[in-house]
Each structure stands twice: as C-alpha cells, then as structure tokens.
Design brief:
The complex is a heterodimer. Chain A is α+β, with helices and mostly antiparallel strands. Chain A has two domains: about 180 residues, no CATH class; about 170 residues, no CATH class. Chain A contains 13 helices and 13 strands. By secondary structure, chain B is α/β, with parallel strands linked by helices. Chain B has a single domain, classed as Rossmann fold. Chain B is built from eight helices and ten strands. In chain B, β9 and β10 form a beta hairpin. The termini of chain B are close together. Classes of the chains: A alpha+beta, B alpha/beta. Chains A and B meet through α1, α10 and α13 of A and α3 and α4 of B. Bound molecules: adenosine-5'-diphosphate and magnesium ion.
Amino acid sequence: MNVRDLWAEALHGVGTRPTRLFLTILGTVLGIGSVVVTVGLAQTAAGQIDKQFDAVTATQVTVEPATSSTGGTERTLAALPWDAEQRVSQIAGVVSAGAVATLDVGTLAVTAVPVNDPSQAAKAPPAVMAASPGLLDAVRAHVVTGRYFDAGHDARADRVVVLGAGAAEKLGVHRVDRQPAVFVGDVAYTVIGIIDGAKRVPALDDAVILPAGTARHDLDAGPPDQLQIHIATGAGQVVARQAPLALDPNNPDAYTVKAPSAGSAVRGNVQADISALFLALGGIALIVGGLGIANVTLLSVMERVGEIGLRRALGASRRAIAGQFVVESVTTGLLGGLMGAAVGVMTVVGVAIARDWTPILDLRVALGSAALGAVVGLVAGAYPAIKAASIEPVAALRGGV
Amino acid sequence: MTVDLFAAAAPLEPAEPAQPDGTQPDDAAPVVELRAVTRRFPGPPVVEALRAVDLRVERGDYLSIVGPSGSGKSTLLNVLGLLDRPTSGEYLLDGRVAGTASEGERARLRAQRIGFVFQSFHLLPQRTVLDNVVLATMYGGVPRARRRARALAALERVGLSHRVGFWPTTLSGGERQRVAVARALVTEPHLLLADEPTGNLDTASSAQVMALFDELHADGVTLAVITHDLAVSARAARRVRIEDGHLEEIA
Ligand SMILES: Nc1ncnc2c1ncn2[C@@H]1O[C@H](COP(=O)(O)OP(=O)(O)O)[C@@H](O)[C@H]1O
Ligand SMILES: [Mg+2]
C-alpha cells in the first residue's frame, strides 16, 4: 500500500458523504477565511496608506545647505549651486529636480501696472522667487494656463515670469495670451504662464517666479534655498546618500537632506493591534474547526469498524489503517483550507472594491492558509487514527460492514 | 495424518530462518500445522475456546469444520487466518512460525497467503463490485497496472463478469458471496478460509457457492470451511468436528 493508494482510499472515504463533509469543514472554512481576511485587509490597508503616503512624502527628497549656529548667528556652511538639478539628475531614482530661492527685493513694488496706486498699498505684495526650469516637475505642480519657462529662458535671462495661482489672483492676471506684464520695480516682465498645485513648496502659490538666470541678472539673486527632488518609490535612501556627493564631492556634509524613512512605526503598531485581535479570532475558529474534524473523524471510525476489520483481514497493517484516517482528515482540512482561502480572498476583494481600494494579498498567504487547513486536519485526525489502528480485527469483524 | 513426526522437532523451532522472506515456501511443509494450540479468553468467566488443538492441513486439502454453536469454530478460523493469536501452542503456516510472528509480518501473510470469506459478506457498500475485489490486491502488493485485470479474472472465475460495475447492495445474497469469494481469490492465497459462507444464503445460492468451492478444490486451492450445514460439510474431502474446544477428525 503506497501513498497513492492511501490517497485514493481516503478520497473515497471523504467523498461518499458530501453533506457531512460540508458540515465538518465549516469551522475550518471560517477559521482559515478569517485569517486570510485579516491578513488581506491589513495588507490592503497598508497598501492604501502607502499610496497616500507616497503622494506627499515617500517620493520627495529635499536638500538644503547645512547651517551652523556659532555665536548666536545662523549661517549656511555652503551654497547650493543653481545647476544642482543637472548635477543630481544622473542619480538612480531621481525623476526630476529643481532649485528654488526666495528673493529679497527690498522696497521694489510688484504690480501688474506701472502706476503706483495708493489704494492698493495695504495689500501684501506677492513674493518674488527664482526657480530653475526643472522645479515645476520636481514639486509636481501643474500649469493652469500658458507655460512654464524652460532652460532657454533661463540661459538668456529673458524677462519672463510665471505666476503662482494666488499671486495671479492678487495681480488680477487671468489670461496670458495677450502677454500681460508684471512689474518688479519699474522693470516689466512678460507673464508666460500660471501654475498651481505646488504643495511641496507652498510659497510658490503666492509668488512671482523668475527664471534663475533672469533673477541673477536683474535682481542679483543669491544661491537657491533648497533643491527639491522627485524620486522613485523606495529610492529615498540612495538619493539621500548620493545627492550631497553629486552637489559637492569634496564637502558632502555641507548639505542636509530630508528623505522619506524606510517605514512608519506608528502605522505598523496600529495595524499590529488590529491584526492580532482578528488573528486571535481566526485561531479560535481554527481550534473549533479542528475539534469538528476530530469529532467527525472519530464518529466515522466508529461507524466503519466493520470496514476496518475487513481491511485488516485483507492484510492492512495498523499503520495503513491509521494512515487512511489521517489522510482523510488531512484531506478534509485541506478542503476546508482551500474553501476558507477562497472565501477570504473574495471577502478582501469585495471590501476593497466597496472602499475603492486596490486589493492586495500575498499569494503565499492564501496558499499558506490553505496548507494550514491541512495541518489542522493532521492534528485533528491523529487521535481518531490511533483509535482506528488499535481496533482488534476479530472484534471489528463481528460487527459487519 | 499425524503430527507426531514433527512434534519431536518442535522445541528446535523447525521454522527455519533459512527462509527469511517467504518468497520460496517450503513445498514439503503442510499449509497449516497447529501444535497443541490453546486459545483462552481471560473473561471473567475464563473461556477456553480452543483446547490443545492439533491440526495439519496439506496443500490442496478441502477441510470442513463442524460443531455446535459456541464450540470454538470461529476462534479456530481466526487463529488460522492470523486475526487472532493462540494463547499457547504453535502455529506454522507453510512451515514457518506464524502464531508468534510480528504484527507487520502477520499482516503481510494475511494479504498474500490467506483469503477470507465471511458469513455476512463484508462488502463495502459504497464501492462497486470491481472496486471491492481490487481492494484485496491493493493490500496484497499487486502492482497497480495488473490489479484491474486480476480482479476481472477473479470475477470471471466466480461467474460474475456481468456484474463488475454493480453496487453490492443491488446483488442477491449468492452473488454477494461470490464477489467475496472473488475478493478472497484475487491474491491467489495458499489458504482460503470461510466462516459459515452459506449461513445467510438460501438453498439455491448455497448450492452455487458450494459448487464454486468444489471447483476451487479441483483447481488445487487449499480450503477450510466452517459450516453447521451437514450437506455442505459432506462435500469436503476431509471433515473435523469441534466440541467444547476439542478438535477431532470425522472418519
Ligand atoms: N472475545 C471473546 N471474549 C470472550 N469470550 C469469547 C470471545 N470470543 C469468543 N468467545 C467465546 O468462545 C467460545 C467460542 O466462540 P466461537 O469460536 O465464536 O464459537 P463458534 O464460532 O463455534 O460458534 C464461545 O463460548 C464464545 O462465547
Ligand atoms: Mg462462529
């Protein structure tokens, strides 16, 4: 009697009583199902949080000059170069980069008309900022109308500006097709576009933004305040390490880098609590399921005493009898596990669809929990199998099949 | 027919270890040899179902065992069939110690050398006739590829080729018992044991089964059949009677 025979006999034993089989595996189905649902929902929720997390923090790196505060005054140790975006663009994981600086224009007025209207003086004027051509993408802002300036404008120091949406509102500029002008002091700059959505650098919303080259030429702009880098998911640590080297190989410590951390401990703790509760419930359901299988297998042994006697008479060893009942209960448990895993996966998908989430479930979890059902069956079948093997054939045969 | 010749050698364990695996049974040895076999049920009350039984069954013998109810016939058959162990005495099967062999060895001997036919058929109701016969080949170590053919041949031998796909519950008593005989024969045992095989059958079905046993005997199968039916026992070449655990030959 080999393993294949054992399976064939066990499948016959399991398959001849389908109604009972269904009732037997119900507990296991529930147990495995709740384990899969728990793990699946935890993974799905984690994925969901990661997604939101990604959008704001997980894919952004900020580089600023390091500061030292000696003697009460804070001063920067190094200056960021304006071509920083080219320098970091070769680093693996960098999607886009852009430098930005806020300019001190002193007493220069920022207006849409050259005439100084005293009635408007009460309003705070928009800030004036300088940016490199890559900044728009680096902070994931978008153009509302017109366009953003490019490297050409920057290199030629063209007198063009882009307005943040808030600044455009303040200055009364809504369209750019008639080439409106904005004055900084008495110098006119042509507005070529309006941008919005720069959440990474909120100040841009309320700013008149000049190409860096223009700002340096006309307003004597200093170095950028910060370099914004949009990175690929998971590249945070690499970019954080390499960006300062790319900016200044001789003095990488001159820059401070803000990069996303590898994970969120708080998030992990909250989920661990929820998961532990549900896993405990699943575990209890599994124990109940296991007891159910043990009970029914024991009942089946008692019902089939005659069959056991016959098999012994035909030459089955005690081990073969025990093996048959163990394989039967393992099969029962495995079936329960498979059904539970299926029910669990469907539940996870259903909940995810209802919440408009992306269902995430490790395939190994689904298969592993199905296998867990088989383990439950194995444990549950051990005692009935020992019982079956210990039945004396003479006594068993007196019963009849 | 006497055991005295061997009784002298008994303490020396004639079950030679020279035959470790039994693939080459000793042709000269009798199929069954019981030496002062006693089976005592510890009770209470203590029952001596077999008392110092000596029995030799040669190859090809057709032995019938008669006796009143409770005299120890089934106990004897269970001992012969290795389902039960003697309390004392020796049992040699094909010349080798079987009464005190290990459980695993006895299971193997049951599978390969002994066929059982029971009064109440003992067919599995959820299996077809063919499957019931194949079951015996599985434990008998017949290679999978040959099991079906062997089972079909055994069913043909008992005249049930037209019933292979039937469920046992749809068969008549006589047909069921013939399925059981086919199952007992399919492993080509050295010894076929039947405990009141016609006990649940009407006269016509009994006659069929007995005719089948006659055929098997003619083919050289060694048979031991328990019966309380004198018409049945009369067909056996050799008869023994058990009374209160004592066995004696009937001339
Ligand atoms: N397991 C047992 N425990 C106690 N007594 C038993 C057992 N099996 C059989 N006996 C007794 O042994 C005697 C012989 O039984 P059995 O061989 O079945 O008789 P038969 O088959 O000839 O009718 C009877 O008295 C019976 O009660
Ligand atoms: Mg009896």
